[in-house]
Amino acid sequence: xxxxxxxxxxxxxSRLRRMFSLAVEWGLLEESPMxxxxxxxxxxxxxxxxSLEECQRLIASCMxxxxxxxxxxxxxxxxxxxxxxxxRWYDLDFSSGFILVRDSKNGESRHVPMDATLFAxxxxxxxxxxxxxxxxxxxxxxxxxxxxxxxxxxxRAGLIDLHFHDLRHTFASQFVMSGGxxxxxxxxxxxxxxxxxxxxxHLSPTYKIKAIDRMNTLWAGATPQAxxxxxxxxxxxxxxxxxxxxxxxxxxxxxATDAALSI
Length: 263
Description:
globular; disordered C terminus
């Protein structure tokens, strides 16, 4: 027996709530029985990502050209499926090499860089007449069914438990593992806070090592400097507290010493 995930249950509850709300609006019910029902808490911490070999295998397994193109865009840009489906030709700036994402999840637009693969893909992708959508149905409207083609591609590639959104996780994971900066990744993905982006930090075992390497580079070019003791004048006095480090008996605390310790 399989159990539905909280996110799946919440989607079903959302549909039911909408249906009952319409029934009230149309006068079929006096009030909605969904009033007061709370949704389940969802766990969005899933981070499933593909290796580079699996990415190539998935792309090769996409038979429909539009599915192959959208999978490639997700893997090379980290864009969400909804953002890809809403992409329009005037959002592609080939002179600057950026994609303008207008309808982002957080309500703010952002610019996503095009790598060489995406640049070539969009340049070669056919432009359907009568629509500004990059990916459109034969009639020129939004594509409705992506899930069927994607799942069939996953089966042919031998990949299980893979969601389209995992391609976004794959981009982020590979970006970090190749040495990419988390704050740059935050801007590319459109996260409002760095907390969401930090879920990928553990994937870069060399991240802290590289930080230390920067310090090594810094110190390697530094000229030797005098130590603190060498910089003190010969007549400088030593406090009673420091003298205690070289004596067996503790120093007697004088008012001056007490005042120094309270600073």
